[in-house]
Amino acid sequence: MKARDIPNLISIARVILVFPVIWLLLNHHYQSAMLLFFVAGISDALDGFLARQFKWQSRLGGILDPLADKFLLVSAYLCLGWLQALPWWLVGLVVLRDIVIVAGAAAYNFRVQQLDAQPSLISKLNTGLQIFLVLLVVYGLGFSREFSWALPWMLWAVAVTTVLSGLGYVVNWGSKARREMRNGS
């Protein structure tokens, strides 16, 4: 193992953290689940910082990091939907967006050219709002409902940015794929 592998190992650890987070949520251990979810969020920031700061970016890291994020968030949304803490329509939007993004990225990578995607600003905002909503809901389940007034606003903020982000990827990468295929033919 080399030092440059540390960000990838952190991403792998984040994937592994998904399983205890799911178990804790489904068994109503919300405080512990929130702590692990928070640790996963910090690890996401840490692996990105290390990769940029020390120029430890890799193709594997470029794939592992967003997949770890998607796995954690989709799992959390599915669990919170199951627990009826989030509405199913929002869970469906979040899951559908991620399926579209992953399927589109795979199709682009295998049919057009190697994918080197950077998340859009709206996508970064969406991910941040999705994380905040999970923390808000789990906080409400495990600690206090004092912020329940913010829940409807956060639901709609996540819904709107999820749709805009998903459409943005489809339009931008679809256009790029058409251009590349036209130029490559």
Topology:
Elements: H1 6-26, H2 30-53, H3 59-82, H4 88-111, H5 121-142, H6 151-184
Rg, alpha carbons: 17 Å
Number of domains: 1
What's the CATH C level? Mainly Alpha
% residues in beta strands: under 5%
The 3D shape can be described as globular
CATH topology: Four Helix Bundle (Hemerythrin (Met), subunit A)
What's the β-strand tally? 0
Summarize the helix and strand pattern as letters: HHHHHH
SS-derived structural category: mainly alpha
Give the count of helical stretches: 6
- The CATH architecture comes to Up-down Bundle
For the record, what is the CATH homologous superfamily label? CDP-alcohol phosphotransferase transmembrane (TM) domain
Report how far the terminal alpha carbons are from each other: 42 Å
Biggest sheet descriptor:
none
Summarize it.
The protein is an all-alpha fold. The protein is built from six helices and no strands. Helix 1 packs parallel to helix 3 and helix 5 (121-142) runs antiparallel to helix 6 (151-184).
Characteristic key phrases:
185 residues; single chain; 6 helices; mainly alpha; Four Helix Bundle (Hemerythrin (Met), subunit A)
Structure description:
With 185 residues, the protein is mostly helical. It has a single domain (3-184), classed as Four Helix Bundle (Hemerythrin (Met), subunit A) (Up-down Bundle). The protein contains 6 helices and no strands. The protein has helices spanning 6-26, 30-53, 59-82, 88-111, 121-142, 151-184. Helix 1 runs parallel beside helix 3 (59-82), helix 2 packs antiparallel against helix 5 (121-142) and helix 5 (121-142) runs antiparallel to helix 6 (151-184). It is globular. The model has no long low-confidence stretch (mean pLDDT 91).
